[in-house]
Amino acid sequence: MESGGLPDIASLSALIADPSRAAMLTALLGGIALPATDLARQAGVTRQTASAHLAQLVDGGLLRREAQGRHRYYSLANPDVADMLESLALLAPRAPIRSLRMSHVATALAHARTCYDHLAGMLGVTLADRLVQDGLLAEAEGHWLLTAHGREVLTAWGLDLSRLERGKRPLIRRCLDWSERRPHIAGALGAAITERCLALGWLVRIPGGRGLRLTPVGHDGFREVFGLTLDVEAPGTGHTASAV
Amino acid sequence: MESGGLPDIASLSALIADPSRAAMLTALLGGIALPATDLARQAGVTRQTASAHLAQLVDGGLLRREAQGRHRYYSLANPDVADMLESLALLAPRAPIRSLRMSHVATALAHARTCYDHLAGMLGVTLADRLVQDGLLAEAEGHWLLTAHGREVLTAWGLDLSRLERGKRPLIRRCLDWSERRPHIAGALGAAITERCLALGWLVRIPGGRGLRLTPVGHDGFREVFGLTLDVEAPGTGHTASAV
DNA sequence: AAAACGCTTCGCCGCCTGACGAACTGATCC
DNA sequence: GGATCAGTTCGTCAGGCGGCGAAGCGTTTT
User: Fold this and answer.
1) Are B170 and A143 an interchain contact pair (Cβ–Cβ within 8 Å)?
2) Residue B138 parent element (H or E)
3) What is the spatial distance between Cα A78 and Cα B78, in angstroms, rounded to a whole number?
4) A192 to chain B, closest Cα gap in Å
5) Which of A103, A194, B73, B159 qualifies as a FRET site for A125, CA 20 to 30 Å off?
């Protein structure tokens, strides 16, 4: 039997309900650890208030803290937290655009971003669509399954699929994208694809957020390997927008 | 392109963060519509405060209101809301047991409950385990697929699978159970199984909550059709516990 | 050793929000 | 038509919580 007691979703939600804490959590959806001062800046509060918020989030089990010298790096405690945040994002109302900067951030994120450790945004769903169309993934009863052809292509691209399958993590999960409202590829495969794209320099992280930028190398790579033609960048957004 | 703007997960969470509202939402996870007074009682507040809370929840898109005479029935707006609530429950801290009554409610819910429209709790995961073991469901890459054998047995039991497959809803989804931390069957099939169990009188709803009670008929039914031997009821909890 | 830096703790202030009593609307029952 | 009941609106009050300035702690740098 479990530890008993009913889940207290109110206190968990209260943890996320504060705008500053929510901003920190979404910033950490980029999948990388960030120091306290960075998170304070992104949330728009002073260091001391950020510190209090971060303590609460660690206490509530949403964040993990890791000390490194005089820095303390914070990151999401586990993939379940990311799933939960994404399921909230799917139903959450859209914040009204208040500034040109916000609009830039929003379009950059809608274009390409990470969802903890896999690709999301237009890039994520277009890639998924393409893999299904080209028969690398097969759709069955609402799931995606890797085909023999898909296994071949992805192995040739450099993924070690047998290693992924040995892990306890599901190979493929469909994750509903909040900006596109269509599914992209999550699970172990989704993480591996992202990792490979970053390693190959096809994508680079936009500093301080979840946004991704497609490089010219990536443009050619996606076309040659997956037959996918993408815009390299929406004009002018790439450098200024430090996506939330 | 979408309506633009970033998802405001803070304000959505704030909607759920209040204990009274959270209690109402979890009560509605039973899958049936409830009038305002019932929800007020379950949340432990007066009618007028409940009314204010319910207005907020409807406004936030989480609940649907339906007038019927002088009653107003409230229910979850859509299955996505239920998914979101369950993903919160999975990570939420467990409320400490404060009374004998709370303990009864907790054990009743852990035993068998609905998760919006499918079976959860020990019953839900045991049934899923059994279907996999007996080859009605096949596991592939972390998904469940219906086998020919499964199709046969479930059709013989009275499910119209072809109708379910025509719908846009995924046939099978694995839903992580917060009390067992193992998956049970969600999706169109999960809903159909629950519906059939209620129609056959195998299970009855414990009034005013999400709890389910296994009937003697159900005991025999699960044994004969699925080879599953279950306790009819944890002693003494069935009648008093009006599960939250 | 002193200075700089990253982060946290403490104390106080101001606002937001949930709670109820009372009064009102509209449907149902006899 | 009067009584009853479900539900909502209004006004008021109190508790909780996030915000920052100031001060403290430990690490790194010169």
Assistant:
1) yes
2) strand B137-140
3) 27
4) 15
5) A103
Residue whose tokens read 């404060």: B98
Same domain, B132 and B177: yes
Dihedral of CA A53/A57/A59/A64: which sign?
negative
Helical ranges in chain A per DSSP H: 9-17, 19-28, 36-43, 47-59, 79-91, 100-111, 121-133, 148-157, 161-166, 187-199, 216-226
CB B225 within 8 A of CB B157: yes
Residues B120 and B221 in one domain: yes
- Partner residue opposite B17 with nearest CB, options A14, A92, A141: A14
User: Could you give the CA distance from residue B90 to residue B177 in angstroms, rounded to a whole number?
Assistant: 7
Q: Give me chain A's average pLDDT, please.
A: 92
Q: What pLDDT, on a 0 to 100 scale, did the predictor assign at position A243?
A: 40
Question: How far in angstroms lies nucleotide C1's C1' from the CA of residue A67?
Answer: 26
The token pair that represents A167 in the structure block? 């892990």
pLDDT digits (tens, 9 = 90+) for A76-122: 999 999 999 999 999 999 998 888 888 888 999 999 999 999 999 99
Residue A66: CATH number of its domain: 1.10.10.10
Interval B120-142: pLDDT, tens:
999 999 999 999 999 999 999 99
pLDDT at A71: 94
N residues, chain A: 244
Question: Is A239 inside a domain boundary?
Answer: no
The domain of A33 spans 9-80
Structure tokens given for B175: 């839903």
Same domain, A16 and A108: no
- Residues whose CB falls within 7 A of nucleic chain C? A 35-37, 47-48, 50-52, 54-55, 65, 70-72; B 14, 18-20, 45-46, 48-49, 52-53, 56, 69-70
Residue A48's identity, in one-letter code, is: Q
Looking across all nucleic acid strands, the nucleotide with the smallest C1' to CA distance from residue A48 is C8
Q: How many domains does chain A have?
A: 2
CA–CA gap between residue B49 and residue A50 (Å, rounded):
33
Contact B113, B210 (CB under 8 A): yes
Q: What is the DSSP letter of A206?
A: P
Interface test with B, best of A3, A9, A99 (most B CBs within 10 A): A9
Q: Comparing B239 with B73, which gets the higher pLDDT?
A: B73
What's at B40, amino acid-wise? A
B43 and B131 in a common domain: no
| A64: pLDDT strictly greater than 90 | yes
Sign of dihedral through CA atoms A236, A240, B1, B4?
negative
